[in-house]
Write a structure and sequence with these properties.
The chain has one domain: Aminopeptidase (3-Layer(aba) Sandwich), CATH 3.40.630. Helix 2 packs across helix 4. It is globular, with a radius of gyration of 16 Å. Strands 1-2-3-4-5 form a 5-stranded antiparallel beta sheet. It contains 5 helices and 5 strands. It is 38% helix and 22% strand. The chain is of the alpha+beta class. A hairpin with a 5-residue loop joins strand 4 and strand 5.
Length: 153
């Protein structure tokens, strides 16, 4: 194999492996719901998912700390992340299990759902969608995946 094509092949192989993963294992969770795939994110997918909830309309409800919000100039770049790329997410929050929502048809990250420890110590779930996926019924799939994660994984 030519050295120039080896990197491309490695990336495609990694992407193919991640995109076709069908079962949960030690490296993460996977849930499929129609056109959407939910799985433990790579670092780049997590960045894309955070960008999905960083717009002013989402922040009206989410209310993140300013340092957690992806600025408007960086948001478009983050939303272009190709699912299945990027390094493993090396330091996820031990109090939270997150699933990135991937629109398989569009090949893009479009949201995130998490199950985490709430303020009272009990479990909570939360999530958000990219602006162009809101108001179209996709929140049902997002939170259904969160329920599957909370109760069956």
């Amino acid at each position: 194999m030519l050295p120039a094509t080896k990197g491309i092949f490695d990336r495609l192989t990694r992407r193919g492996r991640l995109m076709t993963k069908r079962t949960c294992d030690r490296q993460g969770h996977v849930v499929r719901d129609g056109r959407f795939l939910f799985r433990t994110p790579t670092a780049w997918e997590y960045a894309a998912a955070v960008a999905c909830g960083s717009d002013p309309a989402a922040q009206r409800w989410l209310g993140w700390q300013p340092g957690s919000i992806v600025d408007e100039l960086s948001r478009a770049d983050a939303l272009r992340v190709v699912p299945g790329t990027g390094p493993d997410w090396a330091s996820p929050d031990p109090q939270s299990v997150d699933l990135v929502m991937i629109d398989v048809e569009a090949n893009r990250c479009v949201g995130l759902v998490s199950v985490h420890t709430g303020e009272d110590g009990g479990p909570e779930t939360g999530g958000y969608l990219a602006p162009d996926y809101r108001g179209r019924g996709h929140g049902r799939a997002l939170f259904a995946a969160g329920l599957v994660l909370a109760h069956d994984h």
